[in-house]
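Hi Y.,

Following your request, here is the sequence exactly as I used it, all 197 residues.
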Amino acid sequence: MTRGYAVRLAAVALAAVLAATGCTGGGEAPARPAPVAGGAAALPGPAPAGLALRPAPSGAPGAPAVTGALTDGSPVALADLWADRPVVLVFFTSWCTLCADRQAALSELARRHSDKVVLVGVATEDRPEDVQRYLREHRVEYPVVLDADGAIWRSYAVREPPAVVVVAKGGALLRGWPGGVDAAMLDTELRRLVLAG
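Below is the corresponding structure, written out as tokens. Let me know if you'd prefer a different format.
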């Protein structure tokens, strides 16, 4: 092997290693893929200490304790979420115009109550890429379950979007709105049904 051939071979090998590790030598960091909206990163942390909540009325039925997969494939159990705070389920699709019309206000409501109430989106009859577009477009920062076969929708007797359901801490089913509800009314009902402070 000649010295020139060995140098060229070493240069090709170095270029291959740099390309494989994303080092281009241009000083630019490789582009990272955007995090998946509605995935595990959107799950809430622990509930704040001293969270003031109203007790669920006696005799309220239990909400279906279903499980599913978030948009990034992470498993989620609704019972784990309502173990320490109320949960609002928002049933939607990316192609639902009424869902889109109300989503910005719901996203803002979710941000305002993020330490007290968990909003969880549940999408069905939708392609994952269309759900991602919808979540980014409407700045949805809460977790979203992809209910591909509609089993979660059926367990909550949801036939078409939008629909909203409020579940108390501990899993009591408090209220549902077939046809959805606007954020102002939902805020009022959260204060009446679950938030004591």
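The beta strands are 67-69, 75-77, 87-92, 118-123, 144-146, 163-167, 173-178.

Thanks again,
Q.
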